[in-house]
Amino acid sequence: MKITHIYHSGFAVELTHCILIFDWYKGVLPEFTKADTGREKTYFVFASHAHGDHFNPSIFKLMQPGRTVHYILSNDIHAKATDPAADICFVMPHKSYDIDGIHVETLFSTDLGVAFYIEAEGHTFYHAGDLNLWYWNGEPDQDNLWQIEHYHKEIDLLQGKKIEVAFLPLDSRLEEHGADGVLYFMEHVGAEYVFPMHYWDDLDGSRAYLSQAELRPYRDAFHFEDCFLIPDSVSKR
Q: If you write DSSP's letter for every residue of the chain in order, what string do you get?
């Protein structure tokens, strides 16, 4: 398994037979290998919601002759420009979908759209989109309490699932509350490999949260590499 951080919340995951692309709106995709058959791998392109830092209509340029591309898009994107020739599944929160050999479940986002839980080729993934505990200093207490309540409610729906790879917001703009969502996720769900995201260009600010005492037990699971390889013998153990 090869995981590439493209930019912001955008990631590409290359598996043996398919490629998963999440919230790619900017940056260059890596080169992908072909399947054992010599044919291109199947593309599954996810967009968690319509915000400009998560969805860009340029994703439809991935459609090429001889390539199979499935688009799994939050239904709030429906009103945006989409390609009528594309194979699109518009998804809603708290639903399950089976698409060409992969299984997808969705959560309600505390911002907009959905978060994704995915089973593909015997692996499990969670991409949060903008589902996070957005506790902003200076906002009304009732708004921040709403964030806490609804974030906890959604993450609790993942309890009992064994997640190998999780892509989680770790945004330094939230100041001392930036890691609240990540900490709750790790304490109540957990993942073998965690890739922080949504930190824009503040990589150092995102990394700094790992020095917090509460996150220290989980530090070895976190990865900020641009490209990371997980051997199948490790990821399927």
A: -EEEEEETTEEEEE-SSEEEEES--SSPPPP-PPPTTSSPPEEEEEE--SSTTT--GGGGGG--TT--EEEEEEGGGTTS---TTSEEEEE-TT-EEEETTEEEEEEE-SSSSEEEEEEETTEEEEE-TT-S----TTS-HHHHHHHHHHHHHHHHTTTT---SEEEEE--GGGGGGTTHHHHHHHHHT--SEEEEE--TT-HHHHHHGGGSGGGGGGGGGB---SEEE--HHHHT-
